[in-house]
Predict the 3D structure of the following.
Amino acid sequence: MTSPIKLKAALVPVLMVVVGLVWAVLYYRSVATDPRQDEAALSLIGPLIWVLVPLGVLTAAQAVFAALGGSADETHGLDNRKRLIYLAALACLLAALPWLGLLGAGLPFFALLAYLLGFRRILWLILLTAGLGVLIWGGFAGLLDISLPLYPGQRP
């Protein structure tokens, strides 16, 4: 039998997903019905919703299955040192991105992320780092038509 504590732990990610999706849909509707907005205003939130919905459903399902199945990882919140390192690295990435560009700030972050996820072979670290960089830059530039600074000093 699943303990109530494990089910409560699954409630937080599920509620976060629901709140995020409702907020995104309400924002989309408010932009779509505002006569002062044009079609370009929907160019960010529309594709973002298409990404958020499946990822949100997968996140909620994973949280529920982990609670029902008794996940092997019993640490929650910021108990795990890897999570603290990730959050600090994410803050550094966001702070350094305007000055160092995606190459200077993103590639070290992606390498650290791959290492924290358990990849230790140098070939996999290089491939994942380069792949994530290309995927993120291509997603912003190609799909969302948002220019990210690629190298230091470049203006978007």
